[in-house]
Amino acid sequence: MTWSWVMNYRVKVWDLPTRLFHWLLVALFGLMWWSAESGLLLWHTRAGVALLVLVLFRLLWGVLGSQTARFSQFVRGPAAILRYLRGEHDGVGHNPLGALMVLALLAALLVQLGLGLFAVDQDSYTFDGPLAKLLDSELAEQVSEWHAAWFNVLLGLVCVHLLAIIGYRVLRRENLVKPMLTGHKEVAQPVAQPAFASPWLALLLLAVVAAVVLGGLALV
């Protein structure tokens, strides 16, 4: 009779700032959607500005933050994607395909948020985006239509993201949600512990981004 054991090694993958970003993003996206559907445009704008601060912070954190959060660590070219599809990826953070989704979602969010800053309330014209007054009325209305249409693109990307999470869970028995909650992941073989930046640096970057965004909008 033979016995076999599967030993898993626990490694920290995601830092607290990255995890908070992820779940705050989910919450604010839901709030933006609900407030728009409910006609609560003041809350819609507030959520949008908060989300803009959050996304800009993530871009900075992707350059200055922890190892697994840095774009330079997980954004790869076609060769890396092919190696991953052949099962040769041994990283613990975003895989090359996941990196494409991260970039696509961040880019789509920036487009949506940028359009929203210049959008107008086409129903009652009582509440406009913070920068709508910089455009003439005809262009502002066109931007509002683009803002509404682009949401479908963004929603499509979110659906693909959710389907990918489900697919990994069902087909590969890999839980992508739990590490984003706990920060830790179980791997089959020992891997080097990623380097993590200070959460105080994250707080400083967030404060700077918030000051720049809110200060800039207040000056308009």
What would you call the shape?
Answer: globular
How many DSSP H or I helices?
Answer: 8
Strand order of the largest sheet: 1-2
Q: Could you state the order of secondary-structure elements as H and E?
A: EHHHHHHHEH
Terminal CA distance: 77 Å
Strand element count: 2
Task: Explain the overall architecture.
Helices cover 65% and strands 4% of the residues. The chain has eight helices and two strands, in the order βαααααααβα. It has helices at residues 16-37, 41-64, 71-74, 78-85, 96-118, 137-171, 177-182, 199-219, and strands at residues 9-12, 184-187. α2 packs across α5 (96-118).
In short:
By secondary structure, this protein is mainly alpha-helical. The chain has eight helices and two strands; from the N terminus they run E-H-H-H-H-H-H-H-E-H.
List the helices and strands and how they pair.
Blueprint: E1 9-12, H1 16-37, H2 41-64, H3 71-74, H4 78-85, H5 96-118, H6 137-171, H7 177-182, E2 184-187, H8 199-219
Antiparallel strand pairs: 1-2
Summarize this structure as a short list of keywords or feature phrases.
mainly alpha, 8 helices, 220 residues, disordered N terminus
